[in-house]
Amino acid sequence: TSCRISVGGSAPVPIGCGGGTVGGVWPGSTYPVTVTVTNAAGSATASDTVTTPALFGTVLCNDLGECGLGSPGGGIWVYSEPTQNPPPGRAVGDTSSPSRYQAICRATDIDGVFIDARPWGGKRDNRWVRIRFSGDNYIPFAWFRLDGGDDINQLPPC
Question: I want to staple 104 with a disulfide (CB 3.0 to 4.6 A). Which of 16, 62, 100, 130 is the partner?
Fold first, then answer.
C-alpha cells in the first residue's frame, strides 16, 4: 500500500499511510488536501480542506518604563522589511510589551545586524518575525517570544 498527498494544489508527494508531516504550509491558513491510497486492489482518493493552527507570540520587555504602553522610550518599533536600517526598513509604527500578535513567517536581517534586547528581558538575535501588525510587518525576534517554546523554526521562511 502506498499513500500520496497533495496540499494546496501542489503535485502529490509520498506520505506514510499512518500519517506524516507536510512542509511548506503557512500557519493560520486553509488548504485543500487530496489523499490517494493505492494497493493491489486499486486506488481511492479523498479530498477535504485543512486549516493549520495559527501561531502567536508576545512582545517581550521587562522594563515597561522603556518599552511599555505609553512609555517615554516609545515602545518597540515594527518595520516594513526585516531590517532597522533605512532604506528599506521603514518603521510602520510601534508596539509595547506585552502585546500579542499572530506570527506568520521568519526572516534573517537583510543587513546581517544582530539586535541586542537582553538588557530589557529580550534576547540577542538577527532574525525577524513577520506579524499581523498594520498589515503584515516585521518585528525583531529579539523582542518577540513565540508561544509554545519560542522556537522560531516553527515558522516557515518568508
Answer: 130
Match 507570540 to its residue by C-alpha cell.
57
Question: What pLDDT sits at residue 158?
Answer: 93
Give the position of cell 485543500: 32
pLDDT score at 148? 87
Q: Residue type at 158?
A: C
Sheet holding 30-39, edge to edge: 13-15, 2-7, 30-39, 42-51
> What does the block give as the cell for 130?
513577520
| Average pLDDT along the chain, 158 residues, taken 10 residues at a time | 92 89 85 94 95 93 82 84 85 89 96 92 95 95 94 93
* Longest CA span, the chain: 71
Exposure of 63 in the CB half-sphere (CA atoms within 13 A): 14
Read off the pTM.
0.80
Calpha distance 125→134 (Å, rounded): 23
- Cβ-based neighbours of 71, under 8 Å, separated by 6 or more: 64, 65, 96
How far is the C-alpha of 36 from the C-alpha of 69, rounded, in Å? 52
